[in-house]
Task: structure prediction
Amino acid sequence: MNQIKRIFSLISNQDYFDKKYLNLLREIATVQFKLKDQSTLFGFIWSFFHPVILLIILFAVFSLRLGENVEHYKIYLFIGIIQYTYFANSTSSALKVLSSMRQLTTNVIFPKEVLVIGSVVSNTIIFLLTMAICIIIAFFTGVKISWSTLMLPLVMLLELMLVLWVSLLLSCLYVFFRDLDDVYQVFLRGLFIITPIFYTMSFLGEGLAKSIVLFNPLTYLIDFSRTLIINGEVISFKLFLPLFLVNAIFILISLKIFKQYEPKFAENL
Amino acid sequence: MNPNLQKICSKCPEISLINVTKTFSVIRNRKTIVNSIKGVLSGNSNNPKPYSALNDINFEILEGEKIGIVGINGSGKTTLLKTIAGLYKPNDGEVHVNGKMILLAGYGIGMVDELSVKENIYLYGAIYGIDRKALDEELREIIDWAELQDFMDTQLKTLSSGMRTRLGFSVARFMDADIYLLDEALSAGDKNFKQKCDEYFDSTKNEDKTYLVASHNLEFLKMFCNKTLWLHKGNQMAFGETESVLEQYNDSTNIGPKSQN
Result:
């Protein structure tokens, strides 16, 4: 723990594990949750229906061809959709958070990355709940849930780390480039295609397409989750550890960049 | 604490500004990726003419001093407070601050419109390091002081500007800080509220907390501030004893502001 603190202290003099800081983070996450109207049951049901509707459409279109030889194709699809939706939704809302919380960003003295982290945390809560529901559905549709599912929090942590550094970078860039949102939405469409959500890796063959998909970190996260839930097998730490380290390094780098540009936020918003 | 040490520390400047200059670019184009690429391609990198909001500001404030800031609209009062608060980065010069700050703007600026009164109070508490449990004890009093008993769960955006001003000020009173930066914080209040504020300022006058108050209310500044800074078009016209600075300020506004050479 102290080692981690020392690493963070290289980036800013903020104590990220301070009780007051964590309290502020919790409060901001609650605020974000409320502003998205998700504190009510119906609000949550809406954010749950989004991936479900996508699931129904993709299943209707692809189950006969692409899903023919895939075991538990419904759950296979659902895991992919949930993970992609979490990435897309949380990074998109974090991208705008400095601007949508302009009142606070431009007028109040506090470390601004809390807004970004809080926004990510509030989306992560939805992600956790949806994933839990997914496992329950998997159980009732005949997937043999094994002990390996207990390793799922590790994969979710990895995805949280990925979302976190992407969000820090995007939110910071958005202050200076206001059309980034449009560009990013196009990028997310592309990402949907280059992530194995509705197809399998074998569908791609051995070409450029495969290299592109293998370059996409979401590919590994979704594959890990499917291995744990559907196949009931343990994930390979040879793959997990490097991904963990790379994401940890990227968090530090993007936090550093964020803190570097923080004093310019107020006048550019 | 060793009383001698305390004496030495109270002599140290709590806030000092050395040659602080702040310019804003008057934005001509919206900041977008497309415009940046256009700028690079056409050779002019979209560098609009800078507008100087603060020009070579120099002063020192000691712990416990009460400083007034006067100047006509657009003279740089808000920019100065935000620069001290660290929200703006000066283009030139240095800002040194020694202590925890609260910036409070009038009309409840800096609060979230879509949240209720209560939620805003909790949020502010968290920002200034007070958790819900500790705040719950004060909540009643904060709401009572702001006279918003019937509006606890009302969204902030539906409140009048007077109500918002009262809420902002009421919350700030409970937040513990060393330096209070008040930007027109007393505007839009009615007679009753002004009286409450006067009582509050009377009680804090002899505390060792530092105040910087930007205001158009010269009577208030005379009553509360031992020193005053006069800004005009970003220039520091005078800094010193409140009485004499306000006299100069009044003279200049009567015959129209002098331009500095």
